[in-house]
Amino acid sequence: MKRLNAVSIVVLVFGVLSIPAQAQQFADYPAKVQSPKAKSIDFKNSPRSAKSFKTRLKAEFRNGVNFAGQFILATWGCGTGCRDGAIIDGDTGRVLFPKELGAVIDWNGPSDEAFDIFTFQQDSRLLIVRGFPGYAGSKAGTYYFEWTGTRFRLLKGIATK
After folding, report:
1. Tens of pLDDT along 83-142?
2. Which helix (H) or strand (E) holds 128?
């Protein structure tokens, strides 16, 4: 009986330790959705590179707020299986180019199931990136970021082996 209890305890402890950490949830990072105050994109006070993506940025701006309550997350292709992106502040019209949105290469994950490279919601500050983020030293995986209003803060990264 003592041996059975000891084995049960070992199985229970290792079973609990092997449960993966809970993924971040959109509801954990709420954002109040607002109507954009800016009437157009402010190319004058945005980085010069914003003009290179004028058509794509304007199209997304017309669709309205889609991320973190007051922002517009715009993405476009940058080659086969590659996505680039920018964030437009709905209040000021300024465009930001966070490195976390630059040249993210597609990755299908641990199985053959395909994922969207960027997953986000209008009423949440959480951004989930699946792939090879474009900045130095990144590995394929799933990365969870919180938008602070001016930049992304890495919450958790789960790289593949």
Report:
1. 999 999 999 999 999 999 999 988 765 555 567 899 999 999 999 999 888 765 678 889
2. strand 126-131
Mode of pairing for the β-strands spanning 118-120 and 126-131: antiparallel
What size, in residues, is the chain?
161
72 contacts 90 by C-beta, under 8 angstroms: yes
pLDDT tens digits, 63-75: 999 999 999 999 9
**In contact, 67 and 73? CB cutoff 8 Å:** yes
Q: What Å distances lie between residue 59 and 52, 63, 88, CA to CA?
A: 14, 7, 12
Cα(first)–Cα(last) distance of the chain, in Å?
40
